[in-house]
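All the exercises in this workshop are built on plain-text protein records. A record pairs a protein's sequence with a compact description of its fold. Read left to right, the backbone structure tokens trace the chain's path through space. Once this layout is familiar, the rest of the handout is easier to follow. Here is such a record, shown just as it appears in the course material:
>
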Amino acid sequence: MTNAAGQVAHGFWGAVGNTPLIRLKRASDATGCEILGKAEFMNPGGSVKDRAALGILQDAVDRGLLVPGQPGLVVEGTAGNTGIGLALAANAHGWKSVIVVPETQSREKLDYLRMIGADLRLVAPKPFADPGNYVHVSRRLAEELGGVWANQFDNQANATAHERTTGPEIWAQTGGRIDAFTCACGTGGTLAGTARALKAQNKDIRIVLADPEGSGLAAWVKTGTVKASAGNSITEGIGQAARAPGNLQGAPIDDALTIPDAEALEHVYSLLIDEGISVGGSAGLNVAAAVRVAKDLGPGHTIVTVLCDGGARYQSKLFNPDFLREKGLPTPPWL
């Protein structure tokens, strides 16, 4: 459903994908490698999650659960970005959306969801084992309202969307000259799908999961058991402390790195002030992991990572000096 470069896209569904790779100058120069960021903030809904939203809804259409132009309802629990993609994609076909979000997510994403017409349901943050967790609340709401539950964490249509689009785009854009791919995981769809596509082309491409502190996915990659690392993170939508999502099962992952917030934020601020690229915290974490992998591989290699979304969605947190000081994190000097 993605548009080919240079062609006219048809609405939201046709405008997702074919985002450029951006050479990250400071990271590349510091490592002697080519570090390239997939500019997913340039999708129409502003994030990499537009791909998952489109893949999940296209699958629902293919299975006859939703029909374009006829009444339909999409329900999902999300940290925000998938909800934005789902709501916009649903709007384009005349469907309604109910989006369940933990109330601790950034104000900017919550305001955006309301602005685009989503029926926003805020819930208290609860661990996955609690019935009040936003994922479980969304599943129950879908059953009660008769809607399609997107189920982004375990719905394989999520990873398949990246296997069909993100991975092949990266392979084509690099001319097959890629040595490693780094990516953080929330649902696991971006990493799993992209990894499968890239490994199908060259099994030696190194796939590295980037994990925030407090998440257990790095331990899962290394030991097979989800065990949360020490600390916590202000990043949103990535990391899992309780389980490995269904989309990650069987994904060809070679290694995992745990990245502290301060290291990730260093790249967020550097990209903004030195290169004019505004990204959120997960992108900073991805770039930090790419830099570590580049230093491990040595000069002359090409590492691709994902610039998941833009920094404007986190202005009240990542660019709020009071919030950063409260968390003991570095504050950008221009703020």
